[in-house]
Amino acid sequence: MEMNHTVTVEAEPYPFELVPAQCALLIIDMQRDFLEAGGFGAMLGNDVSQLRRTIKPNRKLLAAWRTAGLQVIHTREGHRPDLTDLPPAKKIRGRSKTCIGDVGPMGRILVRGEPGHDIIPELYPLPTEPVIDKPGKGAFFATDLHAILQNRDIKQLIVTGVTTEVCVHTTIREANDRGYDCLVPEDCVSSYFPEFQEMGLKMIKAQGGIFGWVSHSAYILAALGYCL
Ligand code: TIU
User: Fold this and answer.
1) How large is the C-alpha radius of gyration of the chain?
2) Structure confidence at residue 44 as a pLDDT band (50, 70, 90)
3) In the chain, what's the furthest Cα-to-Cα distance?
4) What is the structure's pLDDT at 159?
5) Measured by CB atoms within 10 angstroms of the end CB, which terminus of the chain is less buried, N or C?
6) Whole-Å CA distances, 101 to 98, 112, 114, 166
7) 103 phi, psi to nearest 5 deg
8) Ligand 1 mean position to 110 CA, how many Å?
9) What residues does ligand 1 touch, defined as CB less than 6 Å away?
10) Are 72 and 66 in contact (CB under 8 A)?
11) pLDDT digits 0-9 by tens, 172-220
């Protein structure tokens, strides 16, 4: 397949014209701290099993992107071990007994270098794939993501990961304002709250695609010529 040619992906609110060579797969925060027991997500009182259904479709999409030689970028939410990049407001939010930087079953919560902060083994980055360490919810805030995308001539993003209404939404909004076209496969993103998943996806594609497009990984793989 010619990666500079446009392929049409079935999507809402209307078909997405995908140019594979200009489209990065951006996988947001598929970290143990959000997807496994004892991490940040669980600390906030969430049922982490809500997010685990995204692992399988993300694996398929990631395998396809790698096989096609296309660009993959991963992100991780977290902070420096000395917490100098952790806003005091973020640390105390939630009034939880345990907070960011405290020791949990997977090491210090949401701290870089700790087991819980790392990406789940099922989607572990290759050494050639950039990993963006971000202190906020959005992947553009206080990171070099925009520079990396510009240097690689990326104009479109397939955004997957967790959680839909928090880091995925914030990143899509930031990307949209910087001129990127964002496509979200609904089976590859998830929220701890089913109602936020539903409304989060609706918000992206409403008003003529105010933030982007919503599709399904099967449609993206089909457009790339993968038999399912
Ligand atoms: N709490 C929640 O839903 N999400 C986050 O705190 N971070 C991300 O979404 N990655």
Assistant:
1) 17
2) confident
3) 54
4) 99
5) C
6) 9, 10, 10, 20
7) -85, 130
8) 11
9) 29, 34, 44, 77, 137, 162-163, 166-167, 192
10) yes
11) 999 999 999 999 999 999 999 999 999 999 999 999 999 999 999 999 9
